Amino acid sequence: MKPKIIIDCDPGHDDAIAIMMACQLTEILGITTVSGNAPLDLTTDNALLLTELVGLNVEVHAGAEKPLLLPPRHAEEAHGKTGLDGPSRPKVKRSANSSDAVRFIIDTVRDNDDVWLVPIGPLTNVALAVQQAPDIVERVAGISIMGGSATVGNVTATAEFNVWADPHAASIVFSAGLQPFRMAGLNLTHKFGIDEQIITDLRGINNQVADFAADLFDFYLMSYQKRTRGQRVPLHDPCAVLAITHPELFEFELRNVTVETEGVYTRGMTVVDQRGWGDQPLNCEVAYEIDRDRGMQIFLETMETYTVS
Ligand code: RIB
Ligand code: CA
After folding, report:
1. Is residue 309 part of a domain?
2. Cβ–ligand 1 contact at 154 (below 6 Å)
3. What are 114-131's pLDDT values in tens digits?
4. What does pTM read for this prediction?
5. In a mutational test of the pocket of ligand 1, which residue from 9, 15, 156 has the highest number of ligand atoms less than 8 Å from its CB?
């Protein structure tokens, strides 16, 4: 039985791969979009484009166009002007089902048992949903996010983009009582990197979805290597999907995690209590290790299942 999920995303190159994998590995009940890597209109258009590319007939609902309190911030340097630079863009035929992602999340969790929330962008929509409908906290099967970090940040020395972009929303979500709460932070996703070999393997699959992913990676690799000295590019968002579908690939530690919303140098930091004692609730399964090669094999296997040509 495939896990039922709602993906809340800001496509985004790695969001796109997460959707491609989730389409094969899970039952996606719907996709909601949020301002993040790019403005909301672009992340929504990109989500629609991706559902058409993979032949996914699910609802797409647009959500928050800005964080709860802060101005919107984007990541054009990583994802380009469209948020999905690289591949040629087919014309998107469909439109979003609504501009009320929060209502969709609430209604879908209330109407379905055992739904996982899979936020892989800023947590604004999920924060609004648990604020407006606290009853959904007990109803979800769990939450699996890409966000935060138990070590270094990427936007700042301490803050990862999804949490940094809306730290107030992240603080609400981490303290809402959602359980199990799996966190794939940068400390983990930096161990799940793609390289030229993965792109070569993708090109060898010969279907439209794999080719689109390879075009995404060509851009993503180039843009990442321009900004860092890394040879492998972390594939962040798919880790949140794999943490549900293949938890055996990971090593998790139960930790107390809180979010810094005020710090001059640390705003957006996920403060992971690694002391192993303390009276704070252990609210989060923090991922520390992943079997990268097996995860990449699963990624390539899902891409091979597409027959869209
Ligand atoms: O910090 C990485 C995260 O920020 C990923 O979700 C990426 O898509 C961006 O949203
Ligand atoms: Ca993302």
Report:
1. no
2. yes
3. 999 999 999 999 999 999
4. 0.97
5. 15
